[in-house]
Amino acid sequence: MAKPNYSFEKRQRELAKQKKKDEKDAKKRAEREAAKSDAAPAAPPAADELE
User: Fold this and answer.
1) Residue-level pLDDT, tens digit, the chain, 51 residues
2) Residues 6 or more apart from 13 whose CB is under 8 A from it?
3) How far, in Å, CA of 28 to CA of 42, rounded?
4) Can you tell me the distance from the alpha carbon of 48 to that of 30, in angstroms, rounded to the nearest whole number?
């Protein structure tokens, strides 16, 4: 019987974990950008509102 290659299995788990983390970070970044773009137009007051 062939012996298990634990190094390969560990590497695959690490890659899966890193991929999941990257996807989560990308999702958070997209949500932050969406919130930032929604809030950005409302931030600077118009010239006629200042008077």
Assistant:
1) 899 999 999 999 999 999 999 999 999 999 999 988 876 555 566 666 555
2) none
3) 22
4) 33
Q: At 3, is the secondary structure helix, strand, or coil?
A: coil
d(CA 47, CA 26): 37
d(CA 42, CA 35): 12
User: From residue 34, how far is each of 18, 20, 28 by CA, in Å?
Assistant: 24, 21, 10
Cα angle 32-17-7, degrees, rounded to a multiple of 5: 160
- Residue 16's pLDDT is 98
Stated pTM of the model: 0.59
